[in-house]
TrEMBL record:
Keywords noted in UniProt: Hydrolase, Metal-binding, Metalloprotease, Protease, Zinc
Cofactor: binding comment: Binds 1 zinc ion per subunit.
InterPro entries: Peptidase_M48
Family statement drawn from the similarity comment of this UniProt entry: Belongs to the peptidase M48 family.
Single GO term (MF): metalloendopeptidase activity
Protein name per UniProt: Peptidase M48 domain-containing protein
Keyword Zinc: yes
GO CC terms: endoplasmic reticulum membrane
All copies of domain Peptidase M48, residue ranges: 127-320
């Protein structure tokens, strides 16, 4: 049975302003088919319900939980903690990067994204803006800028430039592929990078490695030495940010569905994909790689990747959703208050 993460029929929509509207949920239900979304259906008629106050959040059966006192270490993955300490222990890493590159490459990356994308705001793709603002409020973090960029490759990434406001970039093909709930989970994942100060490390890592390869001998040796450690850190950081996505989605199947679609989804078959079957696939991968030969192949398969395999990320999300650590965070959280009258 295919798993649908679309909103149930006629739930109440809970907005950050505290409003409820079953009418808004009805409009969304009419425009969204189960498990699918298209770029044209990002908006779902929010203008019909007090346009000046609605931020177009995800419709939920109950208002979302807010983590007002959330600290990054509350959800940081153990491997992220370990590999971050190892990176910080490398002598002269920050100084070398700054001396090698200065601010020129950072500025190039900033202007490249600003010049080729659409900046999301209250007046530009306001529904998408509402998803970001709600996710940031749940995670207790200031919302960064958000850009939408035309690309056939489903992707989203975060850049934190020194002295400038960080920003998230989402590709149009990713918007086409995901439901609203899944898209908000992606935004939450990227916010997780900022919550954990990954943004600066992500940008720095890419620039440092690229810059080191452009100088002879010494620079190339440093780049090769750093590459394995840096990729190991990047993979562990992704596991942390998948947890941030779960804290916002508050349903593990939504986050797992994102990973499943990135592994093998497209808009035409999205409503046929099955989250439970994908989790079973993850368990079978663990079993197949448990032998000495399987362990070696698995390490060879993942050692040069910046992200863990989707099936392994799905398994991690599923396991953490059933952990005492996650349940403890939910108990500490507060629900958005709602008006007594609709």
């Amino acid at each position: 049975m295919a798993v649908s993460v679309s909103a149930p029929v006629l739930p109440l929509c809970f907005h950050q302003s505290g409003e409820q509207s079953s009418r808004l949920a009805y409009i969304q239900q009419k425009r969204l088919s189960p498990g699918r979304n298209s770029r044209s259906s990002i908006g779902f008629g929010a203008e019909k319900v007090r346009k000046s106050r609605v931020r177009a959040p995800v419709c939920r059966a109950v208002p979302p939980l807010l983590f007002k006192d959330l600290d990054a270490d509350d959800f940081r993955h153990p491997l992220d903690k370990q590999n971050t300490l190892l990176l910080r222990a490398i002598p002269g890493l920050n100084e070398f990067g700054k001396a090698l590159l200065g601010s020129a490459t950072e500025q190039i990356m900033l202007l490249e994204n600003i010049g080729t994308s659409v900046l999301v705001s209250k007046n530009q793709l306001s529904d998408l803006h509402g998803l970001l603002v709600e996710a940031a409020e749940i995670l207790n973090i200031e919302a960064p800028d958000l850009y939408v960029r035309q690309s056939p490759v489903p992707n989203a990434y975060t850049l934190a430039i020194s002295g400038k406001k960080p920003f998230i970039v989402v590709h149009t093909s990713l918007i086409e592929l995901l439901t609203r709930q899944e898209l908000q989970a992606v935004l939450a994942h990227e916010l997780g990078h900022l919550k954990c100060d990954h943004g600066v490390w992500l940008t720095f890592a890419n620039i440092l490695t690229l810059g080191a390869y452009t100088v002879p001998a010494f620079g190339q040796m440093i780049a090769r030495t750093l590459e394995e450690q840096m990729l190991r850190w990047l993979r562990s950081a992704e596991l942390t940010c998948d947890r941030a996505a779960l804290l916002v989605a508050q349903d593990p199947k939504i986050v797992v569905s994102v990973l499943m679609k990135l592994a093998g989804g497209c808009p035409s078959i999205a409503d046929q994909l099955n989250v439970d079957a994908f989790l079973e696939q993850a368990r079978s991968y663990d079993k197949a790689s448990s032998s000495p030969l399987g362990w070696y192949i698995r390490n060879a398969q993942t050692s040069q990747l910046s992200h863990p395999l989707p099936v392994l990320r799905a398994r991690e999300v599923d396991e953490w959703s059933r952990s005492l650590e996650y349940r403890s965070l939910l108990k500490r959280a507060n629900r958005i208050s709602t008006l007594e009258n609709v």
